[in-house]
Amino acid sequence: MRQDDRAPFERALQRARAAAFANGDFAGQESFMTAGEIRALAARAGIGAGVSVLDVGCGVGGPGQLLARETGCGYLGADFSASAVSIARERAPELRFAVAHVPPLPEGPFDVVLLLEAMLAIEDKDALVHAVAGALPPGGRFAFTLEEGEPLTAAERAAMPDPDTVWLTPLAAIEQSLGRAGLAVTWQEDHSRAHRATAQALLDAYAADAEAIAAQLGGPALDDLLAAHRLWIDWLDEGRVRKLALVAERGPIR
């Protein structure tokens, strides 16, 4: 079953995902981020009423719906998965969504480019960062999360399901890409400990709902899901990976 065919995964995992997040922190996200973390990053990026936002890798649009509803921002979500975009449009017909492989980005400019838990799947991060910079005016912000660490070894790639969507990058390499594109980090926060707890909560919820998930996705897909979450827990425990949230600002165009 293909990961970009999002509808079966949404149906199979929605109940467990909702159970894993406590205190209203589930907003339809497909990641380790909580609703509170999404709001905090948006606030740091200055997302508010009338601010134009491009949400790259929006998935089924849960975080975008949350931010558009609560802040009144002008919103465009973009994702390579037509299935995910179809779900997002059905759930939030008042918002704009586009099917797009990035880079390039949809035509801007945008006050903020948002990238939540999608950097990991992009191998050529330098090209992405330059495309983001090109979509921002001076003073525009790039708000994103980063799975920070050295690239996977051959053994780690063999252990991780869907390794072609797992491209870890050292923070220094991202900072260099940002600098070459005229972007400077203005804020950074480490979410590693919190995301380790979220990964465990999701693993426990998927295991508790394993029979129903396997009936919809099949046993191999369930096994891959559980194995991937166990690896993330191990890597976060060991410090092999850090989960960071960052905001970078576009400087004057020279």
Report on this model:
This protein has a single domain, classed as 3-Layer(aba) Sandwich (Rossmann fold). Helix content is 46%, strand content 17%. The protein contains 10 helices and 7 strands. It has helices spanning 6-20, 35-44, 62-71, 82-91, 125-135, 154-159, 171-180, 192-208, 210-217, 219-238; strands at 52-56, 74-79, 96-99, 112-115, 141-148, 183-190, 242-250. Strands 3-2-1-4-5-7-6 form a 7-stranded mixed sheet, sandwiched between helices. The chain is globular.
Known CATH architecture: 3-Layer(aba) Sandwich
Largest sheet: 7 strands, mixed
Fraction of residues in H or I helices = 40-55%
DSSP strand tally: 7
Which residue ranges are poorly predicted, with pLDDT under 50 across at least 5 consecutive positions? none
H/E element order: HHEHEHEEHEHHEHHHE
Give me the secondary-structure topology:
Layout: H1 6-20, H2 35-44, E1 52-56, H3 62-71, E2 74-79, H4 82-91, E3 96-99, E4 112-115, H5 125-135, E5 141-148, H6 154-159, H7 171-180, E6 183-190, H8 192-208, H9 210-217, H10 219-238, E7 242-250
Parallel strand pairs: 1-2, 1-4, 2-3, 4-5
Antiparallel strand pairs: 5-7, 6-7
